[in-house]
Each structure stands twice: as C-alpha cells, then as structure tokens.
Amino acid sequence: MKMSIHRHQFSRRSILAGAAAVGLTGTLAACGGSDDDSGKSSGPVKLTYWAWAPNMDKVAAIWNKKNPDITVTVSKQAAGKDIVSKLITAKKAGNAPDLIQVEYQSLPTLVSNDVLADISKYAKSAKSQFAEGLWGMVTLGTDAVYAIPQDSGPLMFFYREDLFKQHKLTVPTTWDEFAATARAAKKAVPNAYLTTFSSNDPGLFAGLAQQAGAKWWTVQSGGKWTVGIDDAATKKVTDFWGGLVAEGAIDNQPMYTPAWNNALNKGTHLAWVSAVWAPGVLVSSAPDTKGKWRMAPLPQWSAGESVTGSWGGSSTGVSTDSKHAEAATKFANWLNTDPEALAALVKEVGIYPAATKGQSGSVLTTPAFFPNQTDFYDTASKIAATTAASAWGPNVQVAYDTFSDAFGKATKAKKAAQFDTALATMQASTFADMKKQGFKVTEA
Questions:
Q1: How many helices (H) and strands (E) does the chain have?
Q2: What confidence category does residue 7 fall into, taking pLDDT thresholds of 50, 70 and 90?
Q3: How far apart are CA 334 and CA 327, in angstroms?
Q4: Which of 37, 300, 328, 410 has the lowest CB atom count within 10 Å?
C-alpha cells in the first residue's frame, strides 16, 4: 500500500511559532541559515559534528581523507533528551555545532528552538534516496528540509519459530490474529505469554500508533498547533493492548529488565514486537535462543494492508549557527547516501541505513542470531519501504514522560479503563505544556 503524505503549505515561521516563549533570543526572521547569505565559504572548512552513535569518527575519517578542504571532527555526545537540552543551550550561546545527529522525534523541538537550519537549497536532491514516509519525517510536512535521514527502525514481529511450531501457533498477519495467537499461546503454555505491553519505552507505543494512522501533532499555516494524541487511531491501539493486558492474554512487565531478559531467554515470552535492530538486543538479552527466532512483517489492522511504524532512528541536521551550511549539507548527504559511507555506517556504527540502497547487499549479512533466516534484510527492506509518516511536535519529551507514568500505572492495574485514562492524561499534559510555553494550540 502506497503511503500518502499530506503536505501543508506553511513556512518555517509557522513551526517556530512559540519559540520565543521557550527562551529564545533574536528574531525569527533571521533564522534559517548561516552567518552569510549563501552558506558558502572560501578556503578550507572545518566542521564539528555532535553525535552519540559509536565509531562515527571512523566514518568521518573516510570523508576527511578524500575531502581535505572540508574536514569533520566528531564530538561524542549523550543521546536522547540530554543532547537536545545541550543543543538548545548551545544555540542560546550562539555556538551550536555545524552538524547534529538528531532523532526523528526531536526534530520539531529543535526546529521550534531555531537550532536546525532549512537545508532544502542543498538537500532536496536527496529525496529520491529514501522511502516517502522517512523523508516526511525530516520535512515535517513542509517544503523545508531540516535533516538527511540516517538510520531507521521499521517495526516488525519477532517470534520463537521453534515454540510456534511446537505449540501449533499461527504467525499473525493482522492484529485480530495477533490477539487470537496470544490467547492460544496462553492456553498452550499457561506459565508463558506471547509478549508484553511495556510502559518504559514510549517509542514502541508511538510506532504502533503511527502504523494505525495517528497524527499526534499537526500545525496549520497560521502557526497554530493541534494536539491529537488521543485521536481515533491511538485509541484503537490503546484499547487493543489494554484489553489484552486486562484479559491476561499478554504480560504487563516492562522491557529491558532482568525479568524481561529471562522471559525471552527461557521462552516464557514467545514473541516480541520490535524493530529491525532487535537481533542485536536478543544477543545479550536471550543468548541461549540463537537460531530459534524468526522475523515477519508487523500485523496489520486490515487484511491485505502493508504499512509499518518505526521505533527509533536518527538523521543528520545542520545548525543555524553554522557558517558553512552548504559544506555541512554536502557531508550529511555523503554520510547518508554514498555507498562507501553506508557500508561504513553498517560495519562501524551498526545501524540500519535509512537510504533504500543501503538496506540490502553484501554489507548487510544475515544477523548471526538469525542464521535460519538468510533473507532477513531482503524482507526488512520491503517492510521499511512501507514506513508510515510520523507527526511529531515540539514537546515530545513531555508526552513521553507522561506516557511512562500514566501507562505504567495502567499496566500495573491491569484495567482496560485505566489505559483509556492514561491516554487522556497524556493528551491533557501535552496540550497544557504547549499552552504554557506560549504556542498557539488547540486540541483535535
């Protein structure tokens, strides 16, 4: 099924609306580039790249050897909200780095704080290198381009092939089938579950809502934001998972704990809804299960559909403080589209490239943990092409923090009604925070 991204014709100023309320100085009219009009420079250029991914300096070294006139120095940073806070602080001081590794959900926050430049003048030609949904994540639905996609985390269904065969369980292709398989698994193995609903990583929940068609944030041409976290698509996801937890058909424990690791390793969790990077987690979380897992496309809400959400992934942006916007974009394009760079990102950094041509080929060898699925990355590439466009907003962290708290209480209570309450709390907190910050905002 081909995804359609609805593009609104509004300006960077619309996304920046409310930025002054969160502590920015200067005028919005001055945003969007470098210290000169063109972003060009004469003579050698030295760029600084803030990134948290391991070994990114090794990839930059390949570039530096071939491009002595534009050298890139990688500065290792903490990930998540830490780098976002540090970047906003650096921007206020006028010394943000030239290049930034940015998670997709953090893009609107950095754009609204005038940290990221619109690099469309230099980057639009890169569009054809990426799936439509992924490219939509770096444009925010506008004609601007705020980053080049780097890696992606398309959602998939991972299951214990041996246990599914042993207990005659069906690999689900729809969410209705998923629920039926969960019940069948519980009946076949009373002390086990198909999987768990976890409240300690909102990224998975966001990806599932994304697959269902959720648009948590949207912005109109006048700069007015709409918060719709409790939209029909997300309510459908909430009711589905909340119902299974309340029924006892799936577990309610958080991921990434010793107990969760043990459940995967001992086979008391028979499956995991995760992303393309899951094999790397299973290596350490379930070391005794090597060769016993298999991957399949994410179950669909309607039979015959083919769409997935994403969990994780990042991009390469250029800051508004950079005096070398064109040179920085040139590096960002090379890093995320050049075959040699993509191969190095896979080998040295361990990412799944966002560029379609980097998602298959000899560099992506079958994951050692999945020796029984030699077509792992061919299948992953087809799934990645169906990634739905996301709709992030400028206060994602508030929404995520509220999710962990409210849904944490709901999963412990194991009451479906409390899942609905948790979603309403997430909506209310996010809306109230945007209003407090000074954004023009309404609720869906």
A1: 17, 10
A2: very low
A3: 11
A4: 37
